[in-house]
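Write out the 3D structure for:
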Amino acid sequence: MGVVTKGWWNEFFPTFRPLFGIKPPKETNAEVKYFIKKLNLKKGSKFLDCPCGIGRISFPMAKKGISVHGVDVIQSYLDEIQKKNECLKLPITLELNDMRKIKIKNKFDAGANLWTSFGFFEKESDNLLCLKKMYEALKPGGKFLLHVINRDWIVKYFEPKGWFNIGDLKVLQSRTLDLATSTNHDTWHYVKDGVEKIHKSHIRMYAYHEMIVMFKKVGFVDIEGYSNIKEEPITINYRMMFIFGTKPK
């Protein structure tokens, strides 16, 4: 067991759990197929999923015979994976830890930080440390994928408020974008059966050129980025970024 640090994420993510249902299985399966090819994974390869959430990517990866190590700071997420895997018995190991604190060296063929699980920390050095820890965990020649929202898209299409439903759960967001720090400050209102829960999140948003600098700083080479799994170029008109780097051999 690693070191579990306190932050906005501790209370935020247990309530966030229903939002994993936003991603349809068809989309997840298409992403996993692309990731496996792009990261040069095959049966028996070792993959680091950090943070792993409820195993949205870990399970389909493991079903392909890839050995997955999932790291997350939310115990209830790991418990959910463990319980589900009691029947499936897939090659998945789990670790409760802060992604700044993992102590794995030269072990994995590939790793990923997915679905905008980056930029959680107020100190820029801490966000950089997350990349460094992933870099250290890879074998020489190993590949890394970061999947995050495009900061430039956020600026162009920024909306201060928004809402959506997931079943009988209504989610309302109030957003403030601090241009001095590129930090998105969100207040989330979860309303179900007349009961409201309110949580806040604070995520540093990055432009593609900033991520290139950070990737290079920790040692990654052969850096490339795309807006989607069709490998269209990253532009201001695309919401997401898939950024790849390789640890030199």
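DSSP finds seven helices and eleven strands in the chain.
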